[in-house]
From TrEMBL:
GO terms for molecular function: ATP binding. The keyword Metal-binding does not apply. It comes from the Bacteria. Residues 7-131 form the Novel STAND NTPase domain. This is ATP-binding protein. Keywords: ATP-binding, Nucleotide-binding. Pfam families: nSTAND1. It comes from Streptomyces omiyaensis.
């Protein structure tokens, strides 16, 4: 599987016929939707189908966890992320995603569509129309209603066989094993009372640490009898069984565990234990009390813990949210959740110039859905804080491929925030970088001008330098290196500025010197900036100094040095997940390899690089001087090995996982 899938709580049990039927439909159909109640096992069945069907016949399998988002406007971006598309284009994101999938036979899994049914139906319909070999496997509590959809009803496990097998396996994992006939009878009775609902069985099995199975069967029989009422005539018994089991699990929890269960419902992307400690503390949940409550919820299978990250089933989260509302804490927990991720976002600038940069990238990527949720909440309740959060993460999102989300929230914040000038300058700067990377140079230049004006009003030297960086970047990409040099020089004189702002302006100066032909001066300044970046433990700036050193080495006909610099750039770009930079770096490596008379390897590098360019949704970019180098190197490689050999190597690289190709090239 190429991307995220649900965590496994144990071996897959039963549903052999269902797996075979769904696999058959996936292999012959276009849209299959697994439909069923919460907790019935739709996601686990989908994962099993992918394990079987995805082994052959598909060039890619991508899993989009839709439960992590609540805003339909973010649906396409989430699916694009799941598909490996870091869209830098300025057009319709659906069209960009359709181009990326193209005619490849891709299996796309949309997990938990029920809260976004209309948006999912529209997106799926558009993608299926434009991508002739795409197959979509969805999970939802109701069908999408799209033309050509094949709904597949996911029912409970057979109580006498599959349910008993699952219950026995999960009970053994909880340390409960039975051999006495009366225990086997009681276990079978539990499976019948719980109607074979997998989540209910898993929660019940976790309770066997606290009581014997015979006692559980008696208590469950009584509780389900009490659950009979008017609604039982319109809802299947398995709904009551699941609600009863979740409610029973809730009652078995200690008071602190119940409180923590409710508070955990605020998280979207799976919290770290540090996030839990920050957001959920208070009252009896402090220090050891919170840690013990979390350990209790893990033991009871209410949440699962992998490393330091938690996962909560959708149905369990929904139950917790109901209790949070009963406690009157919904707003206060949303406030604390937003403040947590606001505080995390504000660490970006502090950690940008230092050894924590790569870790910060990884941390904020992992909690992306929670950052979006915090922004949604703050836009409605505290627009200034929303602007601070968006301004803090906007540049990082731009560098790591989340351009559509960055543009969406930065624009929302600019509309909602009237001041102060420093915040407006930061928002305009971050949005300008996004627009520039999308090739919208006129808009980016206008935003740079406004960022500069607001920075002047604020009297903030760092913001003035960042506005200058944006202006210089636009000039470089438009082929105006002397103007960019003048802007960078002006920004680097005057009062002291923070290291990240200074480094970005120094980088503009290096690029401008190279493009204007002052190669010796450019090389000296690039080496100095690289050494400063390395001393600080920073990667983003250092990667672009290596890029410039590679360009300079190519221009000075030092091909071996150019290849070494290109590989150094690629290693840094891998650490921060920059698909745009990986495309640039592979192009430069190809140029270097062609100059070293390694035409076949150059073709492979170009092929892998082209995949990364497709990932960012637009043709090859970079500063203007790179274009002629690409053309000349490709012509030389073709001359050396022949067009046929070149096309074969290039085509094979296009069909190979680009990260595999990249890893082999970096192994030298």
């Amino acid at each position: 599987m190429d991307s995220w899938a649900p965590p496994e709580s144990g071996p897959f049990v039963g549903r052999k016929r269902a797996v075979e039927e769904v696999v058959s439909r996936v292999r012959t159909g276009r849209l299959v939707t697994l439909v069923g109640m919460g907790g019935i096992g739709k996601s686990r069945l989908a994962a099993r189908v992918v394990d079987v069907a995805g082994r052959d016949g598909f060039t890619g399998v991508h899993w989009a966890p839709l439960w992590t988002i609540g805003n339909p406007a973010l649906l396409t971006s989430l699916v694009a992320d799941a598909c490996g598309l870091s869209d830098h284009s300025s057009g319709d994101p659906v069209e960009g995603l359709a181009r990326w999938i193209g005619s490849r036979r891709v299996l796309l899994v949309l997990d938990s569509c029920e809260h976004l049914v209309r948006a999912c139906a529209a997106l799926v319909g558009a993608l299926l129309d434009r991508c002739p070999a795409l197959v979509v496997l969805a999970t939802s509590r109701e069908p999408l209603g799209t033309e050509g959809e094949e709904p597949y009803r996911v029912g409970p496990l057979s109580p006498d066989s599959e349910a008993m097998e699952l219950f026995t396996a999960r009970a053994a994992a909880a340390g409960a094993r039975w051999t006495a006939p009366e225990d086997l009878v009681a276990a079978a009775e539990v499976c019948h009372w719980l109607e074979g609902v997998p989540l209910a069985l898993e929660l019940a099995a976790a309770q066997l640490r606290e009581r014997p199975v015979g006692s559980m069967a008696r208590l469950l029989r009584g509780r389900l009898a009490l659950a009979e009422g008017p609604e039982s005539r319109i809802q299947p018994a398995r709904h009551r069984a699941l609600r009863t089991t979740i409610g029973w699990s809730h009652e078995l929890c200690e008071p602190r565990e119940r409180l923590l269960w409710a508070r955990l419902s605020v998280f979207r992307s799976g919290a770290t234990t540090a996030d839990v400690a920050w957001v959920c503390r208070g009252g009896p949940l402090t220090g050891d009390g919170l840690a013990e409550a979390l350990d209790g919820l893990v033991r009871k299978s209410v949440v699962s813990l992998s490393g330091d990250r938690l996962h909560v089933y959708d149905t369990v989260r929904e139950y917790g949210a109901l209790w949070l509302a009963e406690l009157g804490e919904t707003r206060s927990l949303a406030d604390r959740h937003a403040l947590r991720f606001h505080a995390l976002a504000l660490t970006v600038e502090d950690s940008w110039w230092g050894p924590e940069q790569a870790r910060t990238y990884a941390r904020l990527t992992a909690c992306h859905a929670d950052l979006c949720a915090a922004l949604e909440h703050l836009l409605a309740t505290d627009p200034v804080r929303a602007g601070e959060l968006a301004g803090a993460v906007g540049f990082l999102w731009a560098c790591s491929g989340h351009l559509h989300e960055a543009a969406h929230y930065l624009e929302e914040c600019l509309q909602a925030v009237a001041g102060p000038p420093a915040l407006l300058s930061r928002l305009c700067w971050a949005l300008g970088v996004v627009r520039c990377l999308r090739g919208e140079y006129v808009t980016a230049a206008r935003l740079a001008g406004r960022a500069d004006e607001e920075a002047v009003r604020a009297g903030d030297a760092a913001l003035l330098a960042d506005a200058a960086y944006l202006r210089g970047l636009v000039m470089l990409l438009r082929g105006e290196p002397l103007d960019a040099l003048a802007v960078a020089d002006a920004a680097l004189t005057g009062p002291a500025r923070p290291a990240p702002s200074v480094a970005r302006c120094r980088l503009v100066r290096v690029f401008a010197l190279t493009a204007s032909g002052a190669l010796g001066e450019a090389r000296a300044e690039a080496e100095a900036l690289r050494d400063d970046s390395a001393s600080a433990g920073e990667h983003w700036t250092r990667s672009y100094t290596e890029y410039q050193l590679a360009v300079i080495a190519v221009l000075e006909e030092r091909a071996a040095d150019a290849a070494a610099h290109a590989r150094a750039m690629l290693r840094d770009k891998l650490l921060i997940g920059d698909a745009f930079g990986l495309g640039l770096g592979l192009d430069l490596l190809a140029v270097s390899l062609a100059a070293l008379d390694r035409g076949e390897e150059a073709a492979v590098a170009y092929g892998a690089g082209q995949v990364f360019w497709e990932m960012v949704g637009h043709p090859q970019r970079g500063t203007p001087e790179l274009g002629p180098l690409r053309v000349r190197a490709e012509r030389e490689a073709r001359r050396r090995i022949g067009d046929g050999a070149y096309e074969e190597a290039y085509g094979l690289a296009r069909l190979t996982d680009p990260f595999v190709t990249l890893g082999a090239m970096l192994a030298e």
